[in-house]
Design goal:
Strand content: 15-25%
Number of domains: 3
Largest sheet: 11 strands, mixed
Structural class: alpha+beta
Amino acid sequence: MSSSRDRGSNQAEFPIKSSTMSPTSLCPTCIACLSHHQGLQTLENSPGSLMFFHHFQSQTLQDSATANCPICRPLWLQLEPLQSKIPYKASDKQPLTFLLLQPPESFGVERSYELAAYLNDEATTVDGMEHGSVLIFLLQDRRDLEKHYSSTNTSTSTGSREAWETALRWLQKCNSEHSECFVPEEPSWYPTRLLDIGSNASDPVKVVTTADFQPKGGYVTLSHRWGDAAIVKLTKSSAPNLRSGIPLSTLPLSFQQAAEVARRLQKQHIWIDSLCIFQDEDDKSDWLREAALMDKVYSNTFLNIAATRAEDSSQGLFVFRDPDYELKQIEIPCSTTLTDSREPGPAQDFIMSNILFLEHELMGAPLNRRGWVLQERLLSPRVLHFGSGQLFWECRRGVLCERFPDSLPDFMARLTSTKFKSFDMANRKSNKPGMMISEVPQGKNSDLVIFHLWSNVVRAYSETQLTFKSDKAIALSGIAKVMRNTFKDEYVAGLWRRCLEAQLLWSVDGTRQADFRPSTRSFPYRAPTWSWLSVDGKINPGRCLRDGLCAEVLELDLKYRNEDTTGLIVDGSLKLKGRLRRLQVQTLFVPVEEGVNVDMPGMWMLTVGGTDLESSREGLKPWERIAIVLELDIPHVDFHESNRLQELFIMSMGGPWGTSDDPFTNGDVSPWHDMLLLKCVDKKDGVFHRFGLAKLNTEDKPDVWSLVQAYDADEAELPCATYDAETHSHTIILK
């Protein structure tokens, strides 16, 4: 699978060479903009804000980034992946733009300014998504940040003794003060196999089976990206050599350096997926068995070592860095006012912080974009991340880094998920604190709270990527097992049985994946169409409610690859009872002049029971009459053939939604009524596939709501498993 207290401070320095770095300072273009207002533009609608044109050419931006300009460098790192898609070239009409304005109240800071960098051009639309705001900095008064900067580290490597001493302080404090992160020195459970690395760098490393001997002192784990690099794997053919021992130097650099970290902790055993699970393509029995144990592997690790910045295992853990850029306060001069003659006011010194620092450096790092790694991060009590320029510490108490070794600035804690490992249930609107699974209160709201935790997991997981799409279900199974024990409910292909009807109402955000590619449905088979596991896309999870439902799941049937009911699915169906109505879906055409209609791609007209679902209210423009919002699972160009074959249907599921008991909606009630979009694949037996979700705002379009509730004269003839004339309901098989 693709992740796949200080007792050693007297050991030698990590084996990494020193490096000379250039000093950190603003480039001439940034100084000209911020101190002298070069390129100042008029902002008629934003009094008190300032706008400047910045770099006009990608090459000059890249040159400033290479020179370590603290503004241009992170800007370039954000723009570089888009260079092939955004035509950012030399042009006086396409510059980068700075906006200097007062930050919103949600930042929770005073005496500060927001510095936003934008691509000032229509070409910022890539794959249908806006890429306008590239990066946001916060300029703060020194007095508001001094307490957070206690780093005196001047080392030029994340493998240095100074970096290691910082990591040890984090570990010691976590071990002694964080009861929620506690791992016994001698765990009660060990993985099936471990890698014995010996006590010296010259010792051979060998794969050992824990059933054959009693390991002592616990173990550490490694999270890494396999990538395209050649990698040593445990197979039937390589097993004899790996059991007898091989030189550490024959392993990938990330493995070698992870072994060095383990030795510094005086841990002799490390678990690495590729070396502790048989990887034979023609025999997946061991892989399936071990994959079902991932919750135990990571829950019992003393420390999870993460090669967070590395694209593959050949790149190692340790990197050179410029400590002035990565670790120190970045002080910049900036004029925030204009005189009456529109000259820049006196410049002030501000401390500049990248607001999205954690999002870019940790959450969006190469390793953390991988699907398998989500459960490794969540289930490990603590993780030491080796990032692109510094170390990050992540435990159930929160996140720290070498730049902020003792505490994060308040604004960063407010704007970023800094308690990821506790599923960060902070309600930022009401400033409610985070909550861990173990802290969920018991009572009538406990299901809602746990479900919100699960929803956060689903959203995060759906934004990751998998090398093998078939791993979608099993790469989440470890977290599912932990949640199942807490939820006390049956896990059903990414959903939960107790509120399964409302759980079916998930949707795909914009029919796209996290990397902006269109969403896709899995092939070969991975999960039934009613499960979000069947789709590669950004998922908005369903609900956890029983009130307001008008459909019912009568039976459920899931078949798995083995005995693990959170793992690989080979077949699945459910019997769903509700009101079925015939549906046609057509692209919306809007009249622009007499006899001329223009189609509106992505906007659909729904016809149910022969009646168009559009509002009859006066004064509405043609596109405003559309009452139904379609959230398709995957993009569709048209539905002509399905309309001709009369194979599309709609089933009302329920709504409006909401409850005054829900602590995360503040008692708000959603006016939306949700309906499943269905395609009949077997009219004789009443078998259907899901292809999306339809939503109707019953408050905004009450006249359309009456159309949805109407009865059809031919409803008894619709394809289904059974029909109940008394309740006008159909039982269908949804696969």
